[in-house]
Specification:
418 residues; alpha/beta; Rossmann fold; Alpha-Beta Plaits; 3 domains; 7-stranded parallel β-sheet; 5-stranded parallel β-sheet; binds nicotinamide-adenine-dinucleotide; binds 3-phosphoglyceric acid
Amino acid sequence: MRLLIADKLHPRAVEELSALPIEVIYEPDLTKESLEERIAGVGVLVVRSTPVTAAALEKAKTLHLIVRAGAEYQTIDVRAASRRGIYVANCPGKNAAAVAELVMGLLIAVDRRVVDAVTSLRNGQWRRGEYSKAEGLLGKTIGIAGMGAVGREVAHRAKAFGLTVAGFSRSLTPMKAAELGVVHAHSLEDLASKSHILTLHLPITERTRHIVGKRVFAALPPRAIFINAARADLVDQAAMREAVVTRGLRVGLDVYPDEPRDKLEYASDLFGPQTPGAEASGTWSPSDSEGFIYGTPHIAAATDQSQLAVATETVRVIRSFLLEGHVPNVVNVTTTSIANFQVVIRMQDKIGTFANVLSVLKRHGINVEEVTNSVFEGGGASCAKLRVVSRPSEMCLQEIRAFDEVLHVDVVTLPNLA
Ligand SMILES: NC(=O)c1ccc[n+]([C@@H]2O[C@H](COP(=O)([O-])OP(=O)(O)OC[C@H]3O[C@@H](n4cnc5c(N)ncnc54)[C@H](O)[C@@H]3O)[C@@H](O)[C@H]2O)c1
Ligand SMILES: O=C(O)[C@H](O)COP(=O)(O)O
């Protein structure tokens, strides 16, 4: 089987994967288009940001597994993969600490205007008076939108800074919030109204796209700090820029709607003065009463520690798939079965017995949802458990029992766990 790594992956993981019984091809510079040309004949695919499209999957006749070496999997057409029976897995939480570290870095950088202070020193200035004007963080409230892996890491660090933490998340109940030691918010606007600092750690979905707009910015107090190291499309960019001008919003970003891929240039007016008509010169820096935007070029997850953790998890997923047939962190296998009954069949472990049983079920119109088969020591007998939607009739069971190799047949009703 062939394993294609279509993005940069920590060298230690590439080395470990090469020790597995699989041919490893490392092509870190593949793009959406070139992946389409290289995917034929591949059994396992590893990607980070390289998109995996339905068109590529059309050509992936031998593909079994796609591993996204990162937190999310929006860059993969999971529906198209599911239609072809291809497993998709990710590496949840493995880069959370790195993202939280950058969030804290952006927070302090914004509050103290660190970037401008350094730029000023680089220009041979000593503007101690100007850069001594800062608000401080102690005792303020940080609102965390999305209390998943990253959100929790941010909460942990924020508490160490003497901040009160408030949280809003899909499954965060008041009781859960109390357990985590955070103030519960019932909506994003409620969170903003409770916070001096708002940081986003939500995934991008149909429900979260542009979830942060005018109303959320209006609910924040003047001169609030807003951090987005999650996804740019969570935010109405025009509303954010307007809040910088009208409410003195101070912003720290790691993600952008128009991030360049495969280019080293990024011409943007985001980091200069936001007031319409204001002159953007190389020496412009915001005053202590003005809103502004700081940014990093999508580097939140990019520490060596985090890349190694993600790569190690990638190896674990692939090793488990290859050696145990089990896919950890799989995201596209249904977790709710529609099966209502389990047919338990003990039989002699002989060629054709199982096929005979299946052909009887087929003749009686019984759809098998799941199958497990255990072979007993010595290899003489096996026990198959077939989960089915409808109860097989007595006649169907008698036909199965009639095979000489079938030792015992039973039907049990599955518990309804819903
Ligand atoms: N800048 C980077 O390099 C970088 C790195 C890692 C992750 N990220 C981004 O950060 C996001 C968070 O990462 P994570 O690892 O914490 O993910 P996660 O899945 O662990 O957490 C996401 C949280 O959002 C909540 N959520 C989902 N939909 C919601 C909704 N409609 N309303 C309210 N809450 C909702 C979930 O319940 C969960 O608690 C990722 O989705 C990714 O977009 C960015
Ligand atoms: O989703 C993620 O894990 C981050 O955005 C990091 O993406 P990257 O692996 O492409 O750096």
